[in-house]
Design the sequence.
């Protein structure tokens, strides 16, 4: 897995209205989102998915937006303010070493990692942090651009996710992406050896 980080200028391209033709946030996320949910948007950039997520979870829900670039988060905050969605969005600056999910243990219903995994230097730690933040049976939707991740690398990442306590439950079709929906498995019970 490479340690590339999306340049700021690409954030503006990712907001293009043309992107919605092939990757419409409501169509991609609609089947998994209900009002009142607590959602993580990991690698949110300037909020292509964050703002639609905030609309979908409504005033009783919350979207925690995580990115390692302050300028991306600053743009997201301005966009959320302009759209009247600031109350439903919380931003967190993360680092190469941590997603900064302190205080979220078993509170999140769903996590989204869209076009992020290929930038993560420690994939097992990434999955471990998300697993810890998700509620029991919480879900993680991963999508990687086909140009940035090979099918082989994607499958290796999914194997690491399974080792971290996730189970692949669906392979949604997302334009120009390799995608998987994972679910947090219930912790294994301790059995006494007889």
Sequence:
């Amino acid at each position: 897995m490479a340690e590339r980080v999306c340049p700021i200028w690409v954030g503006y391209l990712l907001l293009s209205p043309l992107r919605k033709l092939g990757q419409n946030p409501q169509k991609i996320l609609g089947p998994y989102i209900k009002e009142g949910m607590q959602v993580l948007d990991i690698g949110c950039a300037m909020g292509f998915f964050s703002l639609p997520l905030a609309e979908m979870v409504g005033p009783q829900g919350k979207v925690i937006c995580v990115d390692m670039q302050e300028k991306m988060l600053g743009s997201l905050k301005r966009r959320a303010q302009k759209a009247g969605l600031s109350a439903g969005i919380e931003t967190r600056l993360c680092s190469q070493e941590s997603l900064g999910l302190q205080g979220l243990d078993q509170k999140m219903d769903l996590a989204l990692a869209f076009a992020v995994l290929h930038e993560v230097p420690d994939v097992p730690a990434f999955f471990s942090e998300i697993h810890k933040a998700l509620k029991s049976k919480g879900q993680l939707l991963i999508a990687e651009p086909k140009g940035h991740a090979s099918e082989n690398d994607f499958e290796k990442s999914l194997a690491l996710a399974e080792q971290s306590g996730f189970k692949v439950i669906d392979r949604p079709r997302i334009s120009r992406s390799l995608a998987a929906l994972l679910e947090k498995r219930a912790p294994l019970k301790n059995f006494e050896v007889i």
Remarks:
- Residues 16 and 191 are 53 Å apart (CA to CA).
- The beta strands are 38-42, 62-67, 89-93, 108-114, 134-145, 166-170, 177-184.
- The first strand starts at residue 38 and ends at 42.
